[in-house]
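WARN retry 2 of 3 for item q-0093 after timeout on previous attempt; input resubmitted unchanged.
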Amino acid sequence: MPHSLPPHPSLKAPNGPVVLCILDGVGVAAGDPDNAIVTAPTPTLDELYSLQPMCTLRAHGTAVGLPSDADMGNSEVGHNAIGAGRIFDQGAKRVEEALATGQAFEGDVWRELLTGTTLHLMGLLSDGNVHSHIRHVLMLINRAAQDGQSKLRVHILTDGRDVEGRSALRFIDTLESCLEEHRQAGLDYAIASGGGRMHLTMDRYEADWTMVARGWRVHVHGEGRAFASAREAVETFYEEDSDVNDQWLPGFVCADQDGPVGRIQSGDSVLFFNFRGDRAIEISRAFEDEAFTCFDRGARLDVTYAGMMQYDGDLHLPARFLVAPPAIDRTVGEYLVANNKRSFVVSETQKFGHVTYFFNGNRSGTLDDALERYVEVPSDTRPLEERPWMKAAEITDEAVAAIQSGTYDHIRLNLANGDMVGHTGDLRAARLAMSAVDLCVERLVRAVQQAEGVLIITADHGNADRMWMRAKDGSTQRAQDGTPIPHMAHTLAPVPVVLIDPTGLRILQAAPEAGIASLGTTILNLCGLSSPDGYVEGLAITRPDWEATS
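OK item q-0093 returned
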């Protein structure tokens, strides 16, 4: 735990709390027709953007520890950066380097995985580089062949969320080409099963364990609709439902005349190749927990299980992993606790772990029960297109009550609508989502002003700022019927920073290259604390009366 910080030389803590409101997936971009943020009725945000000093921060690429500035940000690395106040090399970059240098294959874990009868690789198959990258899968396959693994199966989860909605066949063909090369060399390598990432296996925050149960039946028991190949499965699903997106493809198994070609059985090894943790924890628990009760797994499997990374350092889950995650210490939350600052944290299930676990440097649970209160609002399980308002109102109810209580020095919340509904590709739903968020922001502004606190409005990455696919020349990509092709991934857009303070504090324009890690220092400074050693420089804050006397 870090030591206490000296008082800030010029800033004093406000009478009310310092509130951080993260508008998930709300980037700042041109007012194109598919920008759900700009085209939605959002009078509060419009006024704040125009009347309050507002600047933007980078929330992608190297600004959040990703390999290059071509890599879009995501909620995990975004909340890590804000909560750490510094930039750490993140999963994608660490994994890329460990695989390319061979370091990932030098430890005991890789050797243990190769002792199984069959090596099963499981995870998200795309080049989105948010949860995984197909390049890593190919590197794993090639190294397994090089090291003499004779039998290998791949269990694929189709994306359609961090990449184009119907791009699964492109990745399947690339994977099959690699597997065929090794089959020609006499190895037994094949795709065994698959399905959409939002339909099976990749649940998070225990929102819907039935997703994991469906994946277990498909991957482990080989129970699912059978096809001769993964390509045949996806093509069939496309033909049967012209609206289905890769996220939601039904589960399937690849089978021959003898049945499923790749059930996971005792004596096998399993590597979950996603590097991001939130959607890898539950399937890891299903493989590792002895006293597992979340669904009926059937007969207990005796397999060697590992993750690409350790997905939960506090729970040591999984016990085996190829690449160590970043060791994030001295987080904003730890400094608040060390300085006896009281915190209230709230979001709905879909983003609860982001303002707790990820914000706290990948640490589960509260840092200090006496000084912190975490509230999780259960998310809806109905389709987001039907409920684009999600739980924004309920989250805001909790936050406003906390502001009015006079109990807390710091309050943080995440309104998930811009990201979660943005991922649906439904422009109308995304606009409704942003209108719901705008109403909640208005309530927060009023509550903070009445409490004489400070409100920081920002985001962790872009998403709803682009809802249609673009060609290289910037034009909208369209389907054969002329309708725009939905864009369902995050964007490279910068994110807003607006400071609302009734005493007149305001942010000076941030440097063009400033990133969201600077918010960590800014939060501590606004709480009246000096900047910690090694933190990224915070946003410059001033008052008009300071300027007049300077």
